[in-house]
Design a protein that fits this description.
Length: 190
Amino acid sequence: MSATRLLVLGVVHLSGGAHGYQVRSELQGWRAEIWAKIKPGSIYHALKKAAADGLLTEHAEPGSSGPERVLYRVTARGRDEMVELVRDGLRRTHDPTMLNASIAMLPMLTRADAIAHVDERVARLEAELVEQTTWREHPNPDVPEHVRDQAELWAGHARTELEWAKSLSQRLAEGAYTMADDPGSWRTVH
């Protein structure tokens, strides 16, 4: 639910306010159903839940040829939640869905904040690789061989992710992307 919540809050925020159908269309355009495993119904549920939690406000608008529509806007609490979810997704390992959602909303952070959380991910991945290497070099004889092979697969994924995270941190340090504290960011555009 966190990845869906993050993406819903982010799209509503970036839109300056949106209807459920707009949020759904935007996320479908991003192909979020693939990389964030979002189902259309979960978008509407996330909007209602975020409104109930005080992260979004709801404004009824007359429909042009049908029932009223609900326009959602992000509250200050919702912006804070969104930023914290991006931070959490960047530093938490073993949750690719949340990482993908956090990357999609990366510009919600200041440059220094983004670098700090990506670097925290780097440190966690490095520590996990050391632990995995030790475990693989001194395996418990009771652990089946195919499980040890699975650890090799995980270590390969972790090495690739580590390389990617280091590269992202470097690109951010070199000025990649328009971040929250840059001119022209979502914070400075009206």
